[in-house]
Amino acid sequence: MSDPAEPARAPGVTPPPSLPDVESPPPEQVLDDAPSTEDIIESAQTADEIVRRQPSVDELLGRDR
Question: What is the pTM of this model?
Fold first, then answer.
């Protein structure tokens, strides 16, 4: 009998491979290393600033204006 916690599979479908065990830092350490909301907001850029830095189509295609 199959494990009731496992979803039913169509015949001939192999189960997915099991994931390897990996070492992860504790969630508290990950959160402590993340920038603060204020830091993120300070370094944020407007869409216009980001678009202005992008090359134009002419520049990408190597055309003279």
Answer: 0.40
d(CA 36, CA 38): 5
CA–CA dist 47, 45 (Å, integer): 7
State the DSSP code for 21.
Answer: P
Render the burial of 27-40: b for 16+ CB within 10 Å, e for the rest.
Answer: eeeeeeeeeeeeee
- The amino acid occupying position 8 is A
* Calpha distance 9→16 (Å, rounded): 11
Query: How crowded is residue 22: how many other Cβ atoms within 10 Å of its Cβ?
Result: 5
Residue spans of the chain under pLDDT 70: 1-6, 65
